C-alpha cells in the first residue's frame, strides 16, 4: 500500500464529489503528494547524515538532531496527507451502503437483472438527505485535520523557516556546540510551498462547505415556495425521500422477519436461509 | 503518485489536443521527464556528499553548499515539469463538464441530442471551439508563462547555465576563504544545456500551437462573415470525416506513447 494505492481508493470517491471536491483532490495529488514523492523526499533524504556538529564527542550529533527535529517534516506531511484524505472514505462507505440498499430493493421488486444492477453501480448519487450530512462531516474533518497539522508545524518549527545553524547544549555535548543543518534554503522553499498548497486546500474546503450549505438552503427554499397542489401531497412530496427510505426499510425488515419465521418452522431450509442472508 | 501516474492523467487529455499539442506531450514525457528520471537524477545524486571543501571546519561544507545551491537543479526541473503539465488538466475538466452536460441531455430524452447511447458520449472527441477554445488557449498561455518563469529562475539563480568546477566560499563558520569543489561539473553542464534546449523546443511548440489556434479561429470567422448561407449537411459531413481521421490519428499516437512508457 503506497501513495498509488491511496490514489486508486480515492479516485472512486471522486465520482460522487462536487466539482470543488474534485479540484481539491487534484490539488492534493498533484501539488502535494507528487511534489512530496518526487522532490521533497530527496531534499530531506540526508537530513541526519549531513547534520554536522562542531565536536568530536560521540553521541552529541544524535542527541542534538533528536532535540531539534522531534519529528521530520516529511513524516509530518505524510501523516497530514493520509489523515486529510481519509474522511472521503466516509462518503465512499455511505455510497456503498446506499447502493447495497438499492440492489436489495431491486431484488425484492423482481428487477434483479444484470443491466439494472450495473446501472445501480454506475449511476452518480445525488448529495442529498443523509449523504449530504456525511459529506459535510467529511469536509469538516478535513478542515480540522489541516488546521491541526498547520498548528503542530508552527509549534514544532516556529516561523516555518529552516535555519542554517542551531546551538545545542544537550548532554553529552560539551558546553554549547554549533550544529549545521543540511540544505536549509531548499528546505525552507519546500516548506513554504507545502504551506501555500495546504492553505489553498483549506480555502477550497471552506468554499465547498459554503456551496453545500447554500445549495441545501436554496433547495429547501424552493420546496417551501413551490409546494405541489394539495395539503397531503405537499407533505408527501416533502417527506418523499424519507418516505421512500422508510418503505425500503419496511420491505427489508418484512423480508428478514418472514425469513426468520420460515426458518423456525422448517429447520431444513437453513441452507437456503444462509444463502439469502448473504445478499 | 509519481511520474507514471501523471502520464496516466495526461494521456486522457491527449485525445482532445491538436496535433502540435500531442507532439508537445510526447516531447515532454520522453525528452524531459524520462531523461530526468533515468539520467539526470543519478548525475545529481551525490551532489552534496561529493561537494568537498578544502577545510576541516565542521559545518563549513553545509553552509557553502547551501549558499551556492539554494535549490537543486533536479528539484527545479521537477517543479517546472509539474507546473507546465498541469494546465492541461483545465482542458480535461472542461471536457468532463461538457460530457456531463451531454449525458444529462441524453438522460432527459432531449430530441436535439444526437447520440444513440451513453458509451458514444463517453468516447466522443470534442472539437476545440467555443468555450473549449478559450480554455485550451488559456492552458497553452499558462504553459508558456510557467516555462518562461522557470527558465528565468534558473538563469537568475545559477548565473548562466554553466556549472563551475570550483567555488570560493567565505560564509561563517568557514575560516577566511575556502575552495569548494563541485562533483561532476561537466556532466551537469551537459545535462543542463540539454534540458534548456528541450525546454526551448517546448516553448516553440507552444507558440506554434497558439498561432495555429488563432489562425484557425480567424479563418473560420472570416469564412462565416464571407459565406452567410452555408450548407449544414455538407459541412457536417466534412467535419465528421475530419473527426474520424483525427480519432484514428490520436488512437495511434496514444498507442505509441503508451508503448514508450511501457
Automatic annotation (TrEMBL), chain A:
Gene3D superfamilies: Gap junction channel protein cysteine-rich domain
GO-annotated molecular function: gap junction channel activity
Keyword Kinase (UniProt): no
Transmembrane segments: 21-40, 77-97, 131-157, 189-214
GO cellular component: a single term: connexin complex
UniProt keyword annotations, A-Z: Cell junction, Cell membrane, Gap junction, Membrane, Transmembrane, Transmembrane helix
A Pfam family that the UniProt record links to this protein: Connexin
Entry's localization field: Cell junction, Gap junction; Cell membrane
UniProt cross-references to SMART domains, sorted A to Z: CNX, Connexin_CCC
Residue span(s) of domain Connexin N-terminal: 42-75
Annotated coiled-coil segments of the chain: none
Membrane topology (UniProt): Multi-pass membrane protein
InterPro entries according to UniProt: Connexin, Connexin32, Connexin_CCC, Connexin_CS, Connexin_N, Connexin_N_sf
Biological processes, Gene Ontology terms: cell-cell signaling
Domain of life: Eukaryota
Domain Connexin cysteine-rich: 145-212
PANTHER family: CONNEXIN, GAP JUNCTION BETA-1 PROTEIN
Subunit structure of this chain's protein: A connexon is composed of a hexamer of connexins.
Family from the record: Belongs to the connexin family. Beta-type (group I) subfamily.
Described purpose of this protein according to its UniProt entry: One gap junction consists of a cluster of closely packed pairs of transmembrane channels, the connexons, through which materials of low MW diffuse from one cell to a neighboring cell.
Name this protein carries in UniProt: Gap junction protein
UniProt organism field: Oceanodroma tethys (Wedge-rumped storm-petrel)
Automatic annotation (TrEMBL), chain B:
Transmembrane annotation, as ranges: 23-40, 77-97, 132-158, 191-214
Entry GO terms, CC: connexin complex
Any one of the GO BP annotations: cell-cell signaling
Membrane topology: Multi-pass membrane protein
InterPro entries, alphabetized: Connexin, Connexin_CCC, Connexin_CS, Connexin_N, Connexin_N_sf
Annotated compartments: Cell junction, Gap junction; Cell membrane
Protein family according to the UniProt entry: Belongs to the connexin family.
Subunit record text: A connexon is composed of a hexamer of connexins.
Protein name per UniProt: Gap junction protein
Gene from which this protein is expressed: Gjb6
